[in-house]
């Protein structure tokens, strides 16, 4: 693990927005694939010991990913992600909401804006998360920061393994 990679996690409560910047020691193509392909997302997209499992994913504007984070005792926490904008290899946006196992959304959700850039073989991902509800942001924030930090560490390990295979 390279400890010199950039990682910032900032919250603007007044704007109901979370700003995350994370640098990866991998090329843009590989990082983009890790964020946009279900088989790769399932390998890093949940904090251990939970596992991510995508039921289906259609990565296109208007398409969806329906997935669960599954605990070791089999508890499932479902979410729906609807892709609202895609500019290949540089940006995509989605609306994210928790749901039940039948895709019935628990509102309010959040809007996610991902931006990707590469310099000298390192890829930086800037993520802006706008929450419709301040109360939702407050309720989820502490656990979200811990869990998301763990999932990004999973991603760094996966990217290292995949980079060695190329």
From TrEMBL:
Pfam families: AHSA1 (PF08327)
Ranges in a coiled coil: none
Domain of life: Bacteria
Xref: CDD domains: SRPBCC_CalC_Aha1-like (cd07814)
TM annotation in the entry: none
InterPro entries per record: ASHA1/2-like_C, START-like_dom_sf
Residue span, Activator of Hsp90 ATPase homologue 1/2-like C-terminal domain: 28-159
Similarity annotation: Belongs to the AHA1 family.
Protein's name in the database: Uncharacterized protein YndB with AHSA1/START domain
Species of origin: Mucilaginibacter auburnensis
